Amino acid sequence: MTKILLPDRQATEQLGITLGKNLTASSVILLQGDLGAGKTTLVQGIGKSLGIIDSIVSPTFTLINEYTEGRIPLYHLDLYRLEPEEVTGLNLESYWEGIEVIPGIVAIEWAERMPYKPESYLIIGLTHQPNGTRQAEIHCVNSMIDDQLLHI
Ligand SMILES: Nc1ncnc2c1ncn2[C@@H]1O[C@H](COP(=O)(O)OP(=O)(O)OP(=O)(O)O)[C@@H](O)[C@H]1O
Ligand SMILES: [Mg+2]
Asked: 29-55, pLDDT tens digit by residue?
């Protein structure tokens, strides 16, 4: 487990850039944390490092945004509006199994809403700090890469 202090928006984006540089296709990143904790900002960093030029906006209403013009695809999901039973119907595993879609990085906001999880993933919890900054807590679950290999 790694804890990182993120003093400003740029630091959150930079963490995403570092992750994007080191993760391979089919990696799953589960993002947890309150409203406004910085989940979308981190995904914007991932997009930047993959060379995605399209601006990454929160898929709160669309549920899933797919960006395929970068080095590897980025699938950005936001489960905020869903109940766990509704998430089950989304067939999310097709994203990390890469069966019907080209394997890519799968980043999921409001992963607390997932009734089931992939076999291996990174889980990042973002929290508001009293002084307006954020803190990230990163756990690798059954992941081949650990924090050291991620250079964070
Ligand atoms: N480390 C940080 N310190 C201060 N502000 C930050 C930090 N990281 C991100 N922000 C700012 O916090 C605001 C909310 O960020 P963001 O939209 O990424 O949150 P979110 O977790 O995706 O929110 P939501 O739950 O609504 O999806 C933005 O204005 C962003 O610039
Ligand atoms: Mg968001």
From this structure: 999 999 999 999 999 999 999 999 889
In the block, tokens 């799953």 appear at: 28
**Residue 7 sits in which domain range?**
2-149
What separation in Å is there between the alpha carbon of 13 and the centre of ligand 1? 10
Q: Two tokens at 121?
A: 């993933």
- The candidate with the shortest Cα–Cα distance to 95, out of 56, 67, 123, is 67
Which residues on neighbouring strands pair with residue 75, listed in sequence order? Answer: 66, 106
What whole-number distance in Å separates Cα of residue 26 and Cα of residue 69?
16
Amino acid type, 20? G
Residue 150 pLDDT > 70: no
Q: How far apart are CA 55 and CA 100, in angstroms?
A: 25
How many angstroms is it from 104 CA to the middle of ligand 2? 20
Domains contained in the chain, number: 1
CATH of the domain at 117: 3.40.50.300
